[in-house]
Amino acid sequence: MAALDNLRAQWAGLGTELLIRATRGICDGSLLNADTGRADTSARLEDWAGVLSLYTGENESASVRATA
């Protein structure tokens, strides 16, 4: 009986370790995706700022500001 209890404790410890590793992997992936998204958004805003500057002569009274 003691061997069975020992085996259960080992499996519980292994299950906990796998759950922790999976959660860390998900969090790391989420942070990486967020950083990539911010970089993409910033690059697109810079592109659009360049395009909008071509049209400032037509709408000088309109003020457009883009930030991320």
Automatic annotation (TrEMBL):
Domain of life: Bacteria
Protein name stated in the entry: Uncharacterized protein
Organism: Kribbella antiqua
Upper lineage: Bacteria, Bacillati, Actinomycetota, Actinomycetes, Propionibacteriales
